[in-house]
Amino acid sequence: MNINEFSCKERFLRYVTYDTQSSEESLTIPSTEKQKILGQLLLKELQELGINAQMDEHGYVYATIPSNTNAPVPPIGFIAHMDTSPAVSGKNVRPIIHENYQGADIILPKDNQRLCVSENPILQTLIGHDIITSDGSTLLGADDKAGIAAIMDAASLLMRHPEIVHGEIKIAFTVDEEVGRGIEKFDLKKFGATYAYTVDGDTVGDIEVETFNADKFKITITGHSTHTGYAKGKMINATRIAAAFIDALPKDRWSPETTEGREGFVHVNTISGSEEQAVMTMVTRDFVEEELRANELQIRELLDKTIAQYPGAKYTLKVIAQYRNMKKIIDQHPIVLANALEAVKRAGFTPNTKIVRGGTDGCALSYRGIPTPNMFCGEYNFHSKTEFVSVQDMQATVKTIIEICKVWAERSG
Does domain 213-322 have CATH number 3.30.70.360? Predict the structure, then answer.
C-alpha cells in the first residue's frame, strides 16, 4: 500500500455533506430519517466493492468481508456512527482543507470562528498535515464520519489486496449514537462479531478502554397558574422554581465546565415549561458507578430544599439508565486490547490507553457480549463549530485497522 491508494479524504469530504443530525426529542429509531440517506450511500459503496452488505429498517448498515485464511480466527468488527450531535447544526456543511498546516491559528470564514493553537495544543503535533474544518457556520461531522471514512477505506484496501491475511471482518454503521440510543435496535446476529472496535476517538495511537457511567434525570416541577393580574398569593411559577434550582447548583465544581480527568459531573441540558409545569433533563456522569446514586441523592436533596421555598409546588424525578463503564468488560478480555496495542505499534505509532470522558456504542456492545474498546480516528473538538480532523491521522487509522486484522489472524492461527 502507498499513499496514493488511500481514499479516506475523498470519502470523508463526501460523507460530511450529508446532514445526519440526530434528535433528542424523537421517539423513533433512527431519530431522524435523514440518517438513512447516508446509510443508503454506504450500502451502495460497500456493494460496489464486492462486499456483502445490508441495511435494516432502523437504518443500521451491516457488512461482512470473508476470511481468506483457514486459521480459526474469531470474527472482528469495526463500527462507526452516522449521526452527528444535536448540539450544533450539521446542515450544509462546507468543508475547508488547510493544506500543509504550519502552526498558526486557523481562521474560519463564517460566524467569527477561530481555531486557536493556545486552546488546541494538539495542533502543534500536526505541522505539515492537511487539516479539514467546516467554514465555521456548522460542525464538521468528523465525529464520526472520520471513523466511517477510515473503515470504508480499510475495507476497500482489504478487497484490493488479497495478500493481506485476515479472518472474517464485520462492519457496522450505526444510528443515534449521539443521543445515547445507538445500540438500542442493533442486531447482534446480523453483526456477528466476537470482538469489535468503535472507530470514534481523537489522538493517533490512543485506544480508549474506560468510559463514564451515565444516567439521565427527567425532572418535572408542578406549580399553579392563574391570571397574572390577580396572581398575588396564588401563582406558583414552575419556571421560576426551575431557575432557582439551577441557580442553587454549585458554580465552582460538579459541572462539565469545572471538571476534568476522572472527575464526574451533573449537567442541565434542557429546560422548558410555563407557570404550571417546567421540565428539565439532566445527565450525571462518573467513572465510578456508585457515584451516580450519590449524585441522584444530592440532586433530590437540592430539589427538596428549593421546593420547600414555594409552598404548594411539587416535583418528580425519573432516573433513566444510559450506559456503563466498559472497563469492567474489557478487563475480562485482555486480548482485545493487547491486539489493538500491538497493531498500533506495527502501524508505526505509539500505543496508548486512556479514559474517555463520554460514552460510545462500545459501552452497550460490551455489556451485550461483544467487548468493544474505542480507537482513534483523528477527530477533535467534537460537537462544535471548530471541529477538525487531520487527513494524515485518518490515514493512520486506516493503517491501524489493517494491522488489527493482521494481528488477529496471526495470533489466532
Answer: yes
